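Everyone, describe these structure tokens:
***
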Amino acid sequence: MYVGEQIGLDYNLFEGEALRVEQVTTDFEGYADEWNPNIEFTYTHQATGHFVGFKDHRYRYWGFDTAEQTWVPEDLILGSSIDVDVGRVNQWAPDPDNATQNHFTIEYLGKDIIDTLWGKREVCVTRYSGQFAYVKTPQAQGNFADVYIDEVFTDYVDKDKLIQRSDRHYLEYPSPEMVTATGGYTNYRKQLEGVILEESLYGKDPAYGDIPTGQPVTFEQCLDSFEETDTQTITLDITRSVDDELVQYGSYYWDLKSNDDITVAGRSG
């Protein structure tokens, strides 16, 4: 979903330059839900449409290009490809002066018709592919291993470089031979579900689109929805677990004495 515009990236990259921010929410067979989503933010250069970085909402994985790419759409000709080299800062190489060097290929595959928010539309299709080595530099902090990646993205691009759909292949390997993958995915699709264009909303609302029907939007609204009560006792059910074999259950009763003169830890009120 399209989120908005941002000026610059972390690590003083793209200072003063406008970037387009989009949010992707993944849901893997119930692991994530509306209240506990896996959220990834992607960044593209507003003027050129080039992808310049990504991060997940908890900064567990991330990567930002150190400089703007030099290719332009006019370079992409049907039946041919272009090669691109770009430096990228990430957890393996957090110093922009000693960034990971990525090499990838971009192709224009022609025009296609796909289902979108506006029904069936013609789109332009591009493919990005590359194999990358993320090896720890001396500036890296944390206990994580080197990783080698095989990646192919096929993007279906609408007017104004709006990506309607992205079909992705991403596999991680523990060694440069890339024999047995230890993580990743194939046949994975990201589909645009909501976007705000010229102050008009199309599809799902980027801010509140994943909130279940009938639920208050904010915590304050949730509290305000309760009726007033005269009860002076709150009951709390508690579960404590030391390990799988020892579980303690209990109920605590909290008697409210706010109108009484009481003393706690030497203080009265």
